[in-house]
Amino acid sequence: MKYDFAVFGATGLQGRIASKDLLWNGYSVLLCGRDKSRVEDLLKKYKGRTGFAYIEAEDIKLMTDVLKKSGADVVVNCVEGDYNLNILEACIKNGASCVDLDANAADTIKQFALDKRLKENKLISITGCGSVPGIGNVMLRYAAPKFDSFHTIKCGYDWKSNMNKFVVPFSMPTIAEEFMDPAIILRDGKITSVKNPLDSLTLCYPRGIGKQKCFKDEHQETYTFYRYYKDKGLKNIECFAGFPKHSFDRINTLIELGMASDDPVNFKGMKIRPIDFLTQVLKRTKVPEGYKETENLWVHIYGKKNGKTKVIRMECVIHTLKGWEEDYTNIDTGMPISIMAQMIKKGIIKEKGAFSPEGVVPPEPFFKELKKRKMIVYENGKQIN
Questions:
Q1: pTM of this prediction?
Q2: What SS3 class is residue 14?
Q3: Domains of the chain, with CATH numbers?
């Protein structure tokens, strides 16, 4: 069977959401991952439009073979960890375009370096297609033409829940990196870092969330925003993460206890990374009945228009969506990557090469798709979708 899409990492949290969104829109999807049991419900519900293939992100040959048999010309990469380059290599070998959720700084730069090769093969790669990065990048693309110049961009996310219960917000390895890794920022046109992100705690007041502490974290937007808008006079970029206190405290405790470490420990003759063990254990946790979340993704741009100071505050507000309760606000990561993949499939995005969303995703049709999924976009407090 030839599939419309192949979703790599389909058995993970975001991969399941992206897969469900694609299937909900009538496409056929090859679900690729390691744990078939996590997608048995989708295979049964969408029998005739789905299939499963086992993959290992370290094994380029295996992924190449799976993709070749799938016939898919667009890959949705939701694999956890830094495997974007491996997956992109398998895509290029099979003549498939690729969208992914994010990458570390080094891999982002390496993906952009494949621009010429992608163009030669008439393919496109878009990195950072989730929430932030993702929705935030497209909000910046929308706002940028309204300035003659801008010098500073601040972006981030904040969320809250209706219960003080710990529910895994998103990928634990990604969360651990945000809490522990140096926060990369652009200051006065130069890349620098904040060694301990939690030393940078500050207050944020996003719509629908209220007062909440945020901290600077490493996001690829520090590199991609500058790549596309340095000619606008951009000199300063900071990315922030905001967690409700009950979630922040529990994550911090796990980190302090060493459960987020990627240094292997010996257990009965086997080497196990604590972060991998923690990730698998937390996959077993159930979302409490009635649990709901609200999230705000935001981008603030500071600059000038016609010689006057101008500020635009873009926000996207997401609530737990009816019928998607088990995914809470993680839909704002799994759904956008599905939307962007569909835009490639439909020919709405025609460009070839290596991009991040602010360089290639048209805002208006993208925002229209967000609205269909109850994700509301605001410009300085006014709804625009």
A1: 0.94
A2: helix
A3: 5-131+333-366 (3.40.50.720), 135-327+376-383 (3.30.360.10)
